[in-house]
C-alpha cells in the first residue's frame, strides 16, 4: 500500500488557501503525484442553506454535527480511493475536522465528538501535517478582501478585521498539539507565503525543497531528457482585463487528467501585485474563453518537469506561433545557489526578469 499523506491547509479568513490549493495541485501533479483535495465542508453547507450565525442552538448543533460527519466521511472515502492508486498520492484537506471546534464552546464540541464516536486526540491523529496560513487581517491588512469568498462573514472593516484575527488565533489553538503544525506567516511578497506552503508539503513527502527563487533561461535541448520526467500540455489564454491587471485561463493536462485555473494579477504599486488563483471546472472555463483578449494569441506549450542532481527544472517547449522557443525555469534553488545545468541542455541566454520572455508578452500578436 502507498504511504499516503493527508495534509490540512487551514487558517483564518483571507489567508490564501484558495490560491495555495491551486499551487499544490499543479506543483505535485507535475512531480507525478495523484493529488486528492477535500473541499471546505462548512462552505458547502453554507451554500446549501446552513446558517452558522443562527441563534437557534438546536439547529446550530445539528448543523455542526453534520459538518463533522461529512468531513470525516469525505476523508475516509478519498483515502480508500487513494489506496487503490498505483502512483504516489497525497490528500489535501481545505480545512480539517478540528477547525470545526473553533466555532463553538468546548462543551458543545465535546458533546458533538462524543455523539459522532470520536475525540479531539483521535481527530488530531488523522492528519500527517497541518499548515496554518495566517489571515491577511493580521499583518497584511491591505490585502484583506472578501471578493474571492461570497460566503465570508468577516467583512472589510475594522470589526471584520478584528473578528478575522480572533478566528485566526482560535483555529491555531484548535490545532495546537499536532506534531507537524506549521504556521505560515504573512510576507511583503505573497509569493513567499505560497513558496513556504510548497516547501512544507515537500518536506512531509520527503521531496527536495521547493521554490526559493525561479530563474529563466533560453535553452537548446541537445539530448534526451530523463525517462522519469513528467510531461504535460499547457494552454494559456489571456482575457480582456482592466488597466494594470493581467487575467488568464490555463488548462493543464497530464494524460487524461485536466486542471483548469483562472488567474488574476493586479499591480498595486511599482513593485507590488496581488495574484488570485482559483481552480474552475471545464464548463466555466469554456464559458470564459470567448472573453479572450483579441490582441493576444493563445499560448500552447509542452512542459517537461524533472529533478536533476537534487534540483527541480521545468522545460517549456513552445508550439505554433512560438515554435522553436524553449525556456528552462529552475524550481527550488535558493538565492546564490549555483544551477546544476543538465548536460542535455545548452544554455543560450539567461532571461530572468526580462519581461519580453514572460508569457503575457510572448502572447502579443505581432
Search tags:
366 residues, single chain, five-stranded parallel beta sheet, globular
What do these coordinates show?
The chain is α/β, with parallel strands linked by helices. The chain has helices at about 15-30, 40-50, 55-85, 105-115, 120-125, 160-175, 190-205, 280-290, 360; strands at about 5-10, 35-40, 90-95, 130-135, 180-185, 215-220, 230-240, 245-255, 255-270, 270-280, 300-310, 310-320, 325-330, 345-350. The protein has a nine-stranded antiparallel beta sheet. The protein has a five-stranded parallel beta sheet with strand order 2-3-1-4-5, sandwiched between helices. The termini are far apart. About 30% of the residues are buried. Residues about 145-155 have low confidence and may be disordered.
The major sheet is characterized as: 9 strands, antiparallel
- Strand percentage, roughly? 25-35%
Low-confidence stretches: 146-155
Termini distance? Answer: 53 Å
Q: Please tell me what the overall shape is.
A: globular
By helix and strand content, what is the structural category? alpha/beta
The radius of gyration computed from the alpha-carbon positions, rounded to a whole number of angstroms, is: 22 Å
User: Total helix count?
Assistant: 9
Strand order of the largest sheet: 10-9-8-7-11-12-13-6-14
Number of strands: 14
DSSP helix fraction: 25-40%
The string of secondary-structure elements, in order, is EHEHHEHHEHEHEEEEEHEEEEH
How confident is the prediction overall: mean pLDDT?
84
Amino acid at each position: 500500500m502507498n504511504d499516503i499523506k493527508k495534509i490540512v491547509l487551514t487558517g483564518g479568513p483571507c489567508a490564501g488557501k484558495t490560491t495555495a490549493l491551486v499551487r499544490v495541485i499543479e506543483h505535485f501533479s507535475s512531480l507525478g503525484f495523484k493529488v486528492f483535495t477535500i473541499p471546505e465542508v462548512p462552505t458547502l453547507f453554507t451554500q446549501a442553506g446552513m446558517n452558522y450565525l443562527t441563534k437557534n442552538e438546536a439547529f446550530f448543533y445539528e448543523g455542526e454535527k453534520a459538518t463533522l460527519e461529512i468531513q470525516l466521511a469525505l476523508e475516509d472515502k478519498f483515502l480508500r480511493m487513494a489506496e487503490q492508486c498505483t502512483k504516489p498520492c497525497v490528500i489535501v484537506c481545505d480545512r480539517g475536522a478540528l477547525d470545526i471546534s473553533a466555532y463553538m464552546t468546548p462543551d458543545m464540541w465535546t458533546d458533538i465528538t462524543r455523539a459522532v464516536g470520536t475525540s479531539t486526540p483521535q481527530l488530531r491523529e488523522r492528519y500527517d501535517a497541518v499548515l496554518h496560513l495566517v489571515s491577511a487581517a493580521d499583518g497584511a491588512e491591505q490585502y484583506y478582501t472578501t471578493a474571492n469568498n461570497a460566503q465570508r462573514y468577516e467583512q472589510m472593516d475594522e470589526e471584520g478585521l478584528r473578528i478575522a484575527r480572533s478566528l485566526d488565533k482560535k483555529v491555531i489553538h484548535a490545532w495546537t498539539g499536532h506534531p507537524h503544525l506549521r504556521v505560515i506567516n504573512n510576507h511583503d511578497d505573497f509569493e513567499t507565503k505560497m513558496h513556504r506552503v510548497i516547501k512544507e508539503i515537500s518536506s512531509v513527502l520527503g521531496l527536495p525543497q521547493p521554490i526559493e527563487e525561479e530563474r529563466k533561461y533560453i535553452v537548446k535541448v541537445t539530448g534526451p531528457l530523463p525517462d522519469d520526467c513528467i510531461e504535460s500540455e499547457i494552454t494559456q489564454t489571456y482575457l480582456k482585463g482592466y488597466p494594470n491587471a493581467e487575467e488568464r485561463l490555463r488548462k493543464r493536462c497530464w494524460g487524461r487528467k485536466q486542471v483548469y485555473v483562472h488567474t488574476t494579477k493586479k499591480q498595486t504599486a511599482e513593485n507590488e501585485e496581488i495574484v488570485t488563483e482559483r481552480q474552475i471546472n471545464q464548463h466555466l472555463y469554456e464559458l470564459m474563453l470567448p472573453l479572450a483578449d483579441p490582441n493576444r494569441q493563445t499560448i500552447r506549450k509542452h512542459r517537461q518537469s524533472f529533478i536533476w542532481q537534487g534540483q527541480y527544472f521545468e522545460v517549456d517547449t513552445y508550439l505554433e506561433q512560438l515554435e522553436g522557443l524553449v525556456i528552462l525555469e529552475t524550481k527550488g534553488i535558493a538565492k546564490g545557489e549555483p544551477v546544476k545545468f543538465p548536460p542535455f541542455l545548452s544554455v543560450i541566454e539567461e532571461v530572468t526578469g526580462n519581461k519580453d520572455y514572460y508569457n503575457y508578452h510572448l502572447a502579443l500578436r505581432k
